[in-house]
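DATA SHEET
Item: assembly model
Revision: 1
Owner: S.N.
Input lines:
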Amino acid sequence: ADDVLIPSRVLNRLFLLRAAAPLSSSIPQSTMTKLAEWLLGLSTLGVLWGVVTFDLLGLELPGSYREVAWPLPVYLLVCFGCYSLATVGYRVATFNDCEAAAQELQEQIQEARRDLKSRGLRL
Amino acid sequence: ASGVDQVAGMGLVGFSLMLFTYYTIWVIILPFVDSDHVIHRYFLPREYSVILPGVAALVLVLFVGKWHKG
């Protein structure tokens, strides 16, 4: 179609470039998706946690280790929450305000409103 | 960032640091401290280290649900 934004000849070249890349065998490629990777990692950690908390292998670890293990999932979530809160707070505190640019923008908005009003636009 | 923003931001940072420190001592350090040490008086029984965050998460979810319009 002639009215498409990207000409088809450009699209064809882009697809050729993409198809050519995997022919290079110097970089090993994993076929697992990111979701599968995350699920594998999380379930591995989950199994380890379950084995320690419920003593599924009959290891009879010292009581103090088991006391640390069983709240660990909640502990990691709380840590993540604290990290997120601290990051947001820090970036709010160190945000780079541009006072002069903000002022200039306000003046330009007023100027534009005056101009449009003079041309008959009702705001 | 202007005055109020800086206070609010650094307040959040301080709060999360205190929360992290208290919670880490509670969950990670206390099991390795003798049960007759005086520090145990400043911490609730261990079950609450899971119950309280659970309740807080529930309250947060309900609060967001109330504020969000439809």
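QC remark: Chain A has a mean pLDDT of 86.
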